Amino acid sequence: MATITVYNLQGEATGSIDLPDDIFANDTYEHLLHEMVRYQQAARRQGSAATKGRAAVRGGGKKIFKQKGTGRARHGGRRAPQFVGGGVAHGPTPRSYAFKLNKKVRRNALKSAIARRTNTDKLIIFDSLAMTEKKTKSVVQLFAKLGIGSALVVLPPEHDNFQFSARNIPHIKVLGEQGINVEDILRHDHLVLSTDTVNRIRERFEA
Predict the structure, then answer these.
(1) Which CATH fold would you assign to the domain 2-46+98-206?
(2) Where are the domains of the chain?
(3) Cα–Cα distance between 200 and 62 in angstroms, integer?
(4) 59-75 b/e (C-beta count within 10 Å ≥ 16 → b)
(5) CA-CA distance, 177 to 130, in Å (whole number)?
(6) Pairing status of strand 13-19 against strand 2-7
(7) Sheet holding 190-194, edge to edge
(8) pLDDT tens digits, residue range 178-195?
(9) Fewer CB within 10 Å: N-end or C-end of the chain?
(10) What's the Cα-to-Cα distance from 204 to each of 107, 139, 198, 207, rounded to whole Å?
């Protein structure tokens, strides 16, 4: 098991916690991380790019000249793609870029992202993130003391004061427990959890 130091909100070490290797120190599979980030980004794509084909462009119902005898190519209307003002041939249409990724792959990718932070000593665990007041200065000083400049903070739902205190700090992102994801973990240098969140993550993967 991996043993991680536990801190309090004053930045002082108060003990340690043992984390199961199969979740928090699992082998990092680069290809799974890559696939999961692609999966997340593709699902977020708006997919609203669109152009008008010849059927959607206004006008062009009349045949522009007779079929035979002019020496020119045959044309049925002015809105064909080869004419100025005509429709676009094979242009983009609204679509979804999302694709399927197996549940097992998604679970292992999340394990690998968490393990990457554990293996590089960038996993920070607090005994509790419950604050009695909303005070950004306190969180800034706490993170400075622990050398945290960029971090994803994953909070239990009841810790609203910490969320309000940390959400405006540059390079700090605060998410609820259900929102933990591979892309945000990889975008930030540190992963910050409470012991309650650690236990819930263990239950989530052991279920």
Answers:
(1) Ribosomal Protein L4; Chain: A; (3.40.1370)
(2) 2-46+98-206, 51-91
(3) 68
(4) ebeeeeeeeeeeeeeee
(5) 15
(6) antiparallel
(7) 13-19, 2-7, 123-126, 190-194, 151-155, 172-176
(8) 999 999 999 999 999 999
(9) C
(10) 10, 28, 10, 5
Q: Greatest CA separation found in the chain? A: 95
Token pair recorded at residue 80: 């064909």
DSSP 135: -
- The DSSP call for residue 148 is -
Distances (CA, A) of 17 to 4, 21, 125, 191: 5, 12, 9, 15
Task: Name the token pair of 29.
Answer: 């599979």
* Residues 163, 155 contacting (CB under 8 angstroms): yes
Number of neighbouring beta carbons within 10 Å of residue 10: 10
- Tell me the DSSP string of 9-45: TTS-EEEEEEE-HHHHSPPP-HHHHHHHHHHHHHHH-
Instruction: Write down the pTM of the prediction.
Output: 0.85
